[in-house]
Amino acid sequence: MQYKLSAPSIKNTGTIQLPASKSISNRFLMLNALSYSPYKIKNLSDSDDTAVMLGVLESDSTNFDVGAAGTSMRFLTAFLSKIVGEWTITGSERMKQRPIKILVDALNSLGAKIEYIEKEGYPPLRIFGSNLKGPELELPGNISSQYISALLMVGPTLEGGLKLTLTGDIISQPYIQMTLALMKEFGVSSDWKGNVITIPEKAYTPKEVTVESDWSASSYWYEIAALIPGSEFILKGLHRHSLQGDSNIQKIFTSLGVQTSFSNKGVTIKQVDEPAKKLKYDFISEPDLAQTVATTCCLLNVPFEFTGLQTLKIKETDRINALINELAKMGFKLTTNNVDNLIWDGEKIEVENKDIFIKTYKDHRMAMAFAPAVLKGFDIIIEEPKVVSKSYPKYWDDLKAIGVEMTE
User: Fold this and answer.
1) What is the number of other CB atoms lying within 10 angstroms of the CB of residue 354?
2) pTM for the complete prediction?
3) Max CA distance (Å), the chain
């Protein structure tokens, strides 16, 4: 399936009910299960990833397929390793290419028994659940925070608790801080000093909880606001003092001419200023925002130099090269060291095709970051548009509400 987008008449105002946070929803599901909670989580995300996690936790099966849900794969691997029984967990072809060895080695060192069914270091996995023992573990700090969060959440259930030492630079710190803060809501406090996180052995306490809206999803509306002169949108369900690191989107888009204010109605974003002449930013704490910001900068003709992108290569796709490939179709020539940066110095290349076919690579954020390019006169065709269901199922409906038209 493909969507051809057009924007014959765009509204520059509107109110958007953003989806619930996938990151918080998935952590709450884990903590709910670990606390044997009788309560249902309020405002749970309706994303594919959360549906997968919920399906596994409510299933009577011993064989699970999490599809493309990376968070579910990491969190559930840790969870199942402490649930007595024999389990298998697999995923999509892309999931089978996403490394999990660091997490498996860590769990096995705590007493788990996890085997690779196909390729060494990658899903699918066979897990023999058993009692796990801490207390000490050492991991590189520059790995995916999902590995670290998976271990932290099972930490209190280990004999002796968990003392986790993170070596080197620690990336995606806000996600680790979010995990620890949500664990505290379920009665388990932690101690994070320097590069050592200590968690006592302690039973979680069940609690009624509500999920806040998703700051990552808000980024596409910041992009839309930046591209429409004089625009003003109200985004509902966001918290001013959020646990989500992606709430830093406010700060980033100040440099791109968008102002943020809070009220009882929600978060109001306004296009008020000209964008900066150039943007430099380190995305080490907010890698999921990089696609949105890179695309916005190109569309606003703002050269940029982005760093801290090392985890983008092991996401749903290699997001660094996906951005280079798709932005080239629109005439923007980007470069990278192919490790952790992305640069556009303003160089443009001739575009051959009038219709711009945007490949999504089965990555929801590619579809949502590139769709607003229709607002700048590009004839955009989004391949596999339904991929947005991974995190923002109503994205296309919300775009229709401001006048973006789409035909299959």
Assistant:
1) 7
2) 0.87
3) 63
Q: Strands, E, within 7-160: which ranges?
A: 13-17, 63-65, 85-90, 113-116, 125-129, 136-140
b/e sequence 169-199, b meaning 16+ C-beta within 10 Å: ebbbbbbbebbbebbeebebebebeeeebbb
Alpha helices in 235-289 (DSSP H): 249-254
Q: Half-sphere exposure of 153 toward its Cβ, with a 13 Å CA cutoff? A: 33
pLDDT of residue 371: 98
Say if CB 33 and CB 58 are below 8 A apart. Answer: no
Helix ranges, 360-405 (H) = 364-370, 395-401
What span, in angstroms and rounded, lies between the C-alpha atoms of 340 and 337?
Answer: 7
* d(C-alpha 215, C-alpha 24), whole Å: 11
Residue numbers annotated as active site: 288
Tokens matching residue 24? 């918080």
| pLDDT for the residue 353 | 76
In the chain, the amino acid numbered 171 is I
C-beta neighbour count of 111 within 10 angstroms: 15
Question: Average pLDDT in the 66-70 region?
Answer: 92
Rg of the Cα trace of the chain? 21
Give the whole-angstrom CA distance, residue 292 versus residue 327: 12
- On whether the CB atoms of residues 46 and 21 are closer than 8 A, the answer is no
Give tens-digit pLDDT for 243-286.
999 999 999 999 999 999 999 989 999 999 999 999 999 999 89
Q: Domains (ranges, CATH) in the chain?
A: 2-19+213-407 (3.65.10.10), 22-196 (3.65.10.10)
Cβ pair 304, 275 in contact under 8 A: no
In whole angstroms, give the CA distance from residue 245 to residue 250.
Answer: 11
Phi/psi of residue 204, each to 5°? -70, 150
Using left for φ > 0, alpha for ψ between -120 and 50, and beta otherwise, residue 36 falls in: left
User: Average pLDDT of 359-380?
Assistant: 96
Say if CB 291 and CB 320 are below 8 A apart. Answer: no
Query: Mean pLDDT over residues 106-124, rounded?
Result: 97
